[in-house]
Amino acid sequence: MSIHTMRAIRIHGHGGPEVLRDDEVPIPKPGPGEVLVRVHAVGVNPPDWYLRDGMSNLPPETRPKFSLPTIPGTDLSGVVVAVAADVDGFSVGDEVFGLLRFPGFEGSTYAEYVAAPASDLTLKPAGIDHVHAAGAPMSGLTAWQYLIELGHDHPSPFQAAQHRPVPLDARTTVLINGAAGGVGHFALQLAKWKGARVIAVASGAHESFLRELGADEFIDYTKGRPEELVHDVDVVLDVVGGPGSKRFLRTLKRGGSQFPVFFGEFDEEENEKLGVTVTGTTVRSNSAQLAELGRLLDTGAVRVAIDSTFALADARAAHERAARGHIQGKLVLTVA
Fold first, then answer.
1. Which regions of the chain does DSSP assign to beta strands (E)?
2. What separation in angstroms does the CA of 247 have from each of 146, 251, 274, 298?
3. Do the Cβ atoms of 51 and 66 come closer than 8 Å?
């Protein structure tokens, strides 16, 4: 391989994990407002496999435009190796992490080098390594923008109402469905950081992990239905979402809020009758919020759990692991 090329995982056609190909491609050059990052680790997220299979889970009119071949990935942690002339605030040698160009699909982080918008990056917390830092951006920012601060005014394609996080404190009870996964385990910790009481819903295998993170109550959904066991909750964050999400409305008190990360089927009239609100949002790159999250990671107030790591060349195996589900924390690709 020449000094001008790098390894990158690319998608040439849509399908299962087998369509991920380990290619040799030119090293990108940073354009205006960008830095070149030598990638050390890459966070693996659901949009990576949505892109891989052609966004079949989204209505055609909401699918973002992209062309093939393309390099997937949005999350990275690495080291700055070049800086565009118009960029201030970063220097060669800085360790950085970030969520790149999201909600677009041009992050291209499944690679040895990435030309990254400086505005999407922040300094990596010194107290954690690249693997843990790479696991934080998308999942951590999703939890942050749903529960702590939205940080933008872009409307959701699935609703007219603007998403508004609910102030969390010791008087608030939050139920998190899918609490063991990437977004869920961050949401649990952020809610506890704010002082809230947290009910975690996951399969029984995750109980000790979630209690360790601070869950006050645990429900094994394979043994009981949360909507029959819990009432008078202030906030439901449903990380699983989808068609079954509506059942959690029964757990809310009047004035409560449900936040489905993957929007399901809700009836405005029914919500009004129950006296509850249902809103969601799409996570967006936000370096200021990521810097705040980074401070919590640095002090240990929040931690990134790693389910498993894979070499960049084994991205296919990482996607196969994701397809098996029941992930505890994050999947991360390491770049030698």
1. 5-11, 20-26, 34-44, 75-83, 95-99, 113-117, 121-123, 173-177, 197-202, 217-220, 233-238, 252-260, 277-278, 306-311, 330-334
2. 20, 8, 12, 37
3. yes
- Checking phi first, is residue 287 left (phi over 0); if not, alpha (psi -120 to 50) or beta? alpha
Predicted confidence (pLDDT) per residue in 165-206, tens digit: 999 999 999 999 999 999 999 999 999 999 999 999 999 999
Assessment of whether the complete model's pTM goes beyond 0.90:
yes
**Domains of the chain, CATH where assigned:** 5-136+304-334 (3.90.180.10), 142-278 (3.40.50.720)
**Cβ contacts of 220 within 8 Å, gap of 6 or more:** 202, 203, 204, 207
Better pLDDT: 1 or 64: 64
